[in-house]
Every structure is written in C-alpha cells, then in structure tokens.
Amino acid sequence: MIRKYPRLCSPITLGQVTFRNRMFSAPLGGTDITHDYCVGRGSVGFYELRAKGGAAAVTLSECVVHPETDHSHMFHLDDNRPGSLSSFTFAADAVRRHGAIASVELSHGGMYAGSYILDSKPGEKVVKYSSSDGVLEDGTEILALTKELIADIIKAYGRVAGLAKRAGFEMVMIHGGHSWLINQFLSPAFNRRTDEYGGSFENRRRFMLEVIASVRDAVGKGFPIEFRMSGAEGIGGGYGIETGVEIAKAIDGKVDLIHVSAGSHHSGFFMTHPPMFAPHGVNVRLAAEIKKHVKTPVATIGALNDPEMMEEIIASGKADVIYMARALLADPELPWKVMENRGDEIIKCIRCFTCMAERVQTQTRRCTLNPLIGREREGLEVLPAPKKKKVLVAGGGPGGLEAALTAARRGHQVVLCEKGDRLGGILNCEEGISFKKDMYEYASVMERLLRREGVDIRLNMEVTKAYAEAERADVLICAVGSEPIVPPLPGIGDENVILVNDLPSRRGEIKDSVVVLGGGLAGCEAAVHLADEGKRVTVVEMRDALAPDANVRHRPILMDKLKELVNIELGLTALRVTKDGLVCVKKDGSECLVPGETIICAVGQRPLTAAAQALANAAPRMYQVGDCTRVQNMTAAIYQGHHAALDV
Ligand SMILES: Cc1cc2nc3c(=O)[nH]c(=O)nc-3n(C[C@H](O)[C@H](O)[C@H](O)COP(=O)(O)OP(=O)(O)OC[C@H]3O[C@@H](n4cnc5c(N)ncnc54)[C@H](O)[C@@H]3O)c2cc1C
Ligand SMILES: Cc1cc2nc3c(=O)[nH]c(=O)nc-3n(C[C@H](O)[C@H](O)[C@H](O)COP(=O)(O)O)c2cc1C
Ligand code: SF4
C-alpha cells in the first residue's frame, strides 16, 4: 500500500523502543482521579481510546512525584498505598494491548501545584514551594525549596520513574515546561536563588539535569526518557527561544526525545493551548529552531490536526514526532485514518475549550464533537443494532448530523432531510469567519461520512407531519433547531440591519463602522471577526458582562481579543435603529447614540418548539434533540443526537 503521508506513518525508535508511527498522544489529565490519587477506571478507558485509535504513544498525566511538596489532586504513583501501583498497571495494560507505547508524565507543579490534601485536618494550611520565595496572585505564600527538599524531590523523580517502569510503562515524560517546577528553576522570571541552583544559566539548569540523571538511574539505558519543555515562555522576564535552544543543548543525548511545547501557566493559555484565534502549528517554529542545534529527536505540538501540515513538518526536518492533545479527543481515530489514507474523514478539533472548561465546571472531561469522551466505559460505543429500523432525521444541523451518522453506523436505514440547500444548520453562519473555519468545515466532513455510510440525504426538504407519515419511518429524530430573535425595535427591519446568522450571505453589505447589538458569544465573535477585517466595531450589551454563554476557558481569551480590537458598551438597552446607528438608553434613563453604519443583530435564538411538537405523532417513536428542545450549544446538540440514535 502506498501511504499518502509516509513520514507521518513511519515508525521511529527512541532508546530501544520502536513506536509504530509519528503521531503521539500528548498528556491529557484523566477523567477520574480517585480521592486517593489512583487512576480511576474511567481514566483507564479515556487513555485506552487513543491507543485504540492508532496513536503510537499515549501519555498518562500528570503523575505528581513528590506529594509532600505538591498538593495537586493529580495521580500519585506510590507502592505503599494500596491500589496505586495496580491502577497504573491497568492503565499501562490498556494502552499496550492496542499496540501503543504507554508513557507517563512525571510532574511537580511547584508554586502552581494544587491545594488538595487527602484527609486534611480542619485549618490545615497548604504550603507551596518553588525555586524562590514569593506570593501568588491569590495571596498564597511560596517558600523557596531548601537543598534538602531539592535533593528529596530529585530522588522522588527517579523513584516514581522506576515504579512506572514496573507498572508496564515503556517511556516516561519529564514535565519541564509550562512554568511547572523544573521550569521555575530554568526561568529567570521565577528563579532568584543565589546558591548553585540559581543565578547563571549553568546553575538554573542544574535541577533539571539532576532530575534527568535520577530518572535515568532508575529506568536504565535504552528506556526512553522524554523531556517536555517550553521552547519560549512568552512572559515578561522569562526566557526566549535562545535560552530554549540552550536548554535543549544541555539535555541533548541525555534524553531520547525533546518535546518542544511553548508558553507558561503564568501567561494563560494562548501559547500552551493555542486557541482558535491562533494559527494551526503556531509553535512549530520553536521546535524547528531547536532541532537545528541537537542530535536528539525533537517533537512538536500545538493546534496540529491536519495530516498535510504534519507530514510537511516531518518532511522538512522541523520535527521528528507530532504530538496532539485536543485533536485526539475530537477524533481519537485520527492516526488510523491517516495510516489508512482516510485523512478526509478526520473530525477536526474546533478549539472551543469545552474539554478544559468541563474539568473546572464538573470535574469531568467532555468534548463538543465526541460524545464518548469522558464516558468511554459507559457502554456508549456505536454497536450494530439488534433490529434494523427506518430512521428519519429532520434537520441537518449538528444534532441531526450526529444522530444520522450514529444511526447509520448501527446499521439502520437513515433518511436525513434538511429544509435548506446545505447541511450544517447554524454552523453555516461561521462561513468566512477565519478563526471558526474548523467549525464550519465540520459539516462537510460529516456530510462525507454520512454519504459513505449510505445515508439518504435530501436537501431542500422540509419535514412536515404529512411528509413524515408518508415516509413510514419507525423512528423520527427531530433536530429542527431554532430561529433568530428579532427585537421589536423601530428600524430593525431597515437595510442597514443584518442578522448575525446572515453574515456570510450579506457580508458585502457591511460598512466600515459597525454596531453589534448583543454581547453573547455569537455577537462577540462576530465583532472580533469584523474588527480583524479592519472595521470599527462597537458591541452594545444590556447586561454588565459579555459572553456569559462562553465557557470558562474560551471566555478570557475572547475577552482579551475584544479589549484589543473592539469598543465595548455595557449597560445600554437598545431603543431604535437609525441610519446613523443605534439609539440606546443608559441605566440612568438618558439616551445616547452609538454610531455605526451597519447594525449586526445578535440577540439570541429561540427554540422551534411548536414546529418540533407538530411532528410528535408523525412516527411511532419520536426523539427531539438539540436547540429545538432548548437553545444551548453544539455540545448539547451532538450529545443528544448521538444518544437518541443509540437508543433506537
Ligand atoms: C452565530 C452563532 C454562533 C454560534 N457559535 C457557537 C459556538 O461557537 N459553539 C457552540 O457550541 N455553539 C454555537 N452556537 C450555537 C450552536 O450553533 C447551536 O446550538 C447548534 O447549531 C444547534 O444544533 P441543532 O442541530 O439543534 O440546530 P441547528 O444548527 O439550528 O440546525 C437545525 C437545522 O434544521 C433545519 N430544519 C428546520 N426545520 C426543519 C424541518 N421541518 N425539516 C427539515 N429541516 C429543518 C434547519 O434548516 C437547520 O439546518 C452558535 C449559534 C449562533 C447563532
Ligand atoms: C483536556 C486537556 C488536558 C490537559 N492536561 C494536561 C496535563 O495533564 N499535563 C500537561 O502537561 N499538559 C496537559 N494538557 C496540554 C496538552 O498536553 C497540550 O500541550 C496542549 O493541549 C496543546 O496541544 P493541542 O493543541 O494539540 O491540544 C492538556 C490539554 C487538554 C486539552
Ligand atoms: S472540546 Fe473542543 S477544544 Fe476540546 S477537543 Fe473537543 S473540539 Fe477540541
């Protein structure tokens, strides 16, 4: 077979271990960490899914090496605690039985460690440690590690690495980036010590080298050790790529893979987890620069999901290994799709940050596009249905697309009707918004998959009660969505007003100065997009906050973009539209004009409840999914569509 991406698909040997391809699964904090820090069974399933999907290595993260000074509620590997070693062994097994190499990330958060103490006593105070004394933004005191504690932590790295090897892991990753403890020694922004662990670069790198030596001692020659570093920190007083190169040179030959990530916990997520506003592969340049200076293989990471781009990175010698985190949540099967020349079937991560936000909000994992994530062991796999049925799906938005695909994969006969002339539903509003291209293209990938599964797609076809009855389907899945809310304001129907949903079809009419009425997620993103295009944009919002419907990880990044590019008017209620702009009333009752030639109306959607109810008796069984039940988001629509189809 001729592989379309031969370099990406070629094996690589690190130490004495051969990996089946160049697509590695990056550290992703597990789904369930037991209260006593073991790898929960849910997490085992979480990591296993990526091994099943063809990744060459799957990295379990983060394993805290020294719980005495790092109180993060992360995994601990401790052979004195019943259940700990066995839980890691089950996890390593689950990865290895699918042909992937199991790796584990050894970490110490230093000053950014968590504050969880198992069986803590009332009033017990968590102490945080770093290379130097200090105070965190929240007032927590940071103590500089004593030399005794440093020596103890270095020993602990080795001890835990040895245990990982015993549990069946065949590689370890030392986390030396993102302003975790090793980075807090390397970085001049954190390290103000005056002893042999601080000051000159020779001194600042000492802790890192001693940790690597301790791990090597424990695992022996030939066992691959990987070092995760930030190629550049991107923070005031931090180091840039020149020091990044020096760090890599210092470990060249001492580790088996230099994993070049970027950024700092201190600076937010923009570099460490490139958001939708950053280009794909934005950090590759750092790996490429480092690769010029070292003999050890180099890995790169950061918003990579396109096989063409990944192949080029390896072909042009910028890196030897491609790591992916979010891309393998959205589509764990990505590596097999690449291997089998099915790159056009990859469901690409849309960088919405639901996966990270969900951790904060519910202590679980979830992926907008992949309903299985975080629920891998709950029996949700798509299995053939015991009895084949005819399924009629009404609506080709995210909910309907997912329902149709899942039902077809289960072997049902599926007809998907869409009232409009193309699939995608509201996602078609994202056409032309450069930073939402992956979201817009999701519908095209789904359409391809549906056609390959033999789904009968009928465009320009509105499902009415009569139509559904004539189809005589066993099951009707109703995913008819919502409609835009148009506020009853004088002038709202004038030519200078454009609904946010109509941006793609009316983009030619948008003038240079724009007022966006409505500061929810949709309005804010439209504002950023238009400002990016060079328009003068003001967002008008009645409430005191913008985009409350954005998740907790995406929102701060969106806010930064808004502050940089857009005028923001909070606490203003729109009264009427004129040709000069939007007349509003302030909280004190006075009126003002927010000037703008074009008004973008983005005040929200309302569910098509009545339309959905009208179909209630059109088939023996009817499910309603997505926005027609309650206006929410893609995550809810896809999840509900998937589950309706599983229940058929
Ligand atoms: C501008 C904008 C930006 C957004 N951005 C995001 C975002 O970044 N992240 C996020 O998670 N969510 C976002 N949302 C919300 C998200 O798009 C919706 O929650 C999601 O699309 C709902 O999916 P759905 O399948 O239920 O409905 P829809 O996407 O509305 O699809 C319903 C489809 O059904 C069709 N239809 C209606 N009646 C019938 C009928 N009788 N027969 C056949 N077809 C019919 C419609 O034509 C439509 O194509 C955004 C919404 C808007 C308006
Ligand atoms: C849900 C999630 C959990 C993560 N957990 C960890 C972690 O425990 N340790 C770590 O070093 N990085 C973690 N990361 C960062 C990733 O390893 C990776 O560096 C980052 O997401 C950028 O890669 P990507 O663009 O391919 O997602 C996590 C990322 C995500 C999305
Ligand atoms: S939740 Fe969003 S950002 Fe996270 S992996 Fe899924 S699509 Fe990507």
Could you characterize what this model shows?
With 648 residues, this protein is of the alpha/beta class. It folds into three domains: 12-362, TIM Barrel (Alpha-Beta Barrel), CATH 3.20.20; 390-484 and 607-647, Rossmann fold (3-Layer(aba) Sandwich), CATH 3.40.50.720; 497-603, 3-Layer(bba) Sandwich (FAD/NAD(P)-binding domain), CATH 3.50.50. The strands form seven sheets. The protein has an eight-stranded parallel β-barrel, surrounded by seven helices. Helix 2 (84-96) crosses helix 3, helix 14 (398-409) runs parallel beside helix 20 (634-647) and helix 17 (521-532) packs across helix 18 (554-565). The model has no long low-confidence stretch (mean pLDDT 96). The chain binds flavin-adenine dinucleotide, flavin mononucleotide (FMN) and iron/sulfur cluster (SF4). The site of flavin mononucleotide (FMN) has 22 residues, from strand 3, strand 4 and helix 13.
What is the structure about, briefly put?
This protein has 648 residues and is α/β, with parallel strands linked by helices.
Task: Give the helices and strands, then pairings.
Elements: E1 12-14, E2 17-19, E3 23-29, H1 41-52, E4 57-64, E5 75-76, H2 84-96, E6 101-107, E7 128-130, E8 134-135, E9 141-144, H3 147-167, E10 171-175, H4 181-186, H5 201-204, H6 206-219, E11 225-230, H7 241-251, E12 257-261, H8 269-272, H9 284-291, E13 298-300, H10 307-315, E14 321-324, H11 327-330, H12 334-339, H13 354-362, E15 390-394, H14 398-409, E16 413-417, H15 437-452, E17 456-458, H16 465-471, E18 475-478, E19 482-484, E20 497-499, E21 513-517, H17 521-532, E22 536-541, H18 554-565, E23 567-570, E24 573-578, E25 581-585, E26 591-595, E27 598-601, E28 605-607, H19 609-613, E29 621-624, H20 634-647
Parallel strand pairs: 3-4, 3-14, 4-5, 4-6, 6-10, 7-9, 10-11, 11-12, 12-13, 13-14, 15-16, 15-18, 16-17, 18-29, 20-27, 21-22, 21-27, 22-23
Antiparallel strand pairs: 1-2, 8-9, 19-28, 24-25, 25-26
Helix pairs in contact: 1-2, 2-3, 3-6, 14-15, 14-20, 17-18
The chain binds flavin-adenine dinucleotide (FAD), flavin mononucleotide (FMN) and iron/sulfur cluster.
